[in-house]
Design brief:
By secondary structure, the chain is mainly α. It is 69% helix and 0% strand. 0% of the residues are buried.
Length: 80
């Protein structure tokens, strides 16, 4: 007769439990990875916004400040 046994062996029960635990841990690990990746993307977006704002402020300040005239070069003395 071909078919399944009526009651599973202790080894197969233990293996099924290990597989179930591994699957659950895998789901938790993937959720942790996704959460961490989302946090990294959010932080990168925040830092990018800060950098762009700083660059814009630097450009604005540079445009508002008058340029100092260039110093005249000294002429070389001629030895007598």
């Amino acid at each position: 007769m071909t078919g399944k046994k009526a009651d599973p062996s202790p080894e197969s029960i233990a293996r099924a439990n290990r597989q179930r635990l591994a699957f659950d841990e895998g789901l938790k690990a993937m959720a942790d990875v996704e959460r961490d990746a989302a946090a990294v993307r959010k932080n990168m977006e925040r830092l990018r916004a800060l950098r762009v704002a700083k660059e814009a402020e630097d450009i604005r300040i540079e445009a508002e400040t008058p340029k100092a005239p260039a110093k005249a070069k000294r002429k070389a003395r001629v030895a007598k």
